[in-house]
Input
Amino acid sequence: MPTIGILGGTNWSETARYYRLAREIVRERGAGGRPSRIMLDWVDDHELEYLQATGEWDAAAALLVERVSYLREAGADGVVLCGSLIAEVSWRVMQALPIPVVALHENASRGDVDAALLQVSLRIRNTEAADPSLLTGRRS
Output
C-alpha cells in the first residue's frame, strides 16, 4: 500500500481542506482495492510567503524540500504539494527529490486533488504518468 505525503497549503484552513479531500478520495478508491495511506505536514506560511514574495526561490524550495524529506523519512513514497506555490519553487522541489512530487495550485478543486493523488500513485508504481500537465512548474 503506497503512502502519500501531503505538504499542506500556506494556511491551516487550506491544509485541512486538502487533507479532508484526500481522505475522502482515498476512502472512495479503497472500495475493493488497496487504498493509499495519507501523511500530513505543513510549512510556516509566513516564512514561505515572504520567501516567494521576495523572489528567494532557492530558499523557499529548501524549506519545502526539508519538510518533504521529513515526510519521506516517516514513510511517504510520494508527495503532493498543496497551496500557493510559485512554479519556480515547486519546480525546484520536484528536481531536488528522489521521490515523485506533484504540485497543486491554490484553491485546487476536488477533481484536481483526485488527479494529483492518482498522478503521484502512478509515479510511485513506476508507470506512465496519467497527465504530465498536472506537474505544476514542469518545463518542456
The chain has five helices and four strands. Residues 127-140 have pLDDT under 50 and may be disordered. The longest helix spans residues 12-29. Strands lie at 3-7, 37-41, 78-81, 101-103.
